[in-house]
Amino acid sequence: MIMLALADLTMTERLARALAPLLQQQDVLELVGEIGAGKTTFTAALARALGATEPVRSPTYTVAHAYGLADGTTLAHLDCYRTRGTLDEAAWGDVEPYFDSGIAVVEWPEPVRAWLTGRRTWQLELRAVSESARIARLQAPDPASARAFLRSWRSSSLT
After folding, report:
1. Model confidence over 98-153: pLDDT tens digits?
2. Complete domains list, the chain, with CATH
């Protein structure tokens, strides 16, 4: 597990820029954190780092949004907060296409975890320590990805 102190939004943007080039098609990024921890803010930064041009909106009430990326693929942003328990097969069928068309970012991922076995999954936990500062804990899908992230983080600039 990689732990980072994010002093402000600039550092959150840096985290997104460091992670973006490591994400592969059909990767899943689970976002974990309380309400107000910055999950949607991080997703917006990640979308920009991946080349999305449209603004990212919270999918809390619509469950999912998809954003076109510069390379022609998509970034799916799902929020399973309002879903109770594990999704049944019919409910999974409604959201499964979001996981097959590009990279999927999932806030409150617990209801879909059972359906994601075998997928390359990252987990990012965000915890607010002040209005602007966060503690980030990143779990990479494998040791090589963790090392690649650390190299990317170290070489990323604050600009």
Report:
1. 678 789 999 888 877 877 778 899 999 999 999 889 999 999 999 999 999 999 99
2. 2-140 (3.40.50.300)
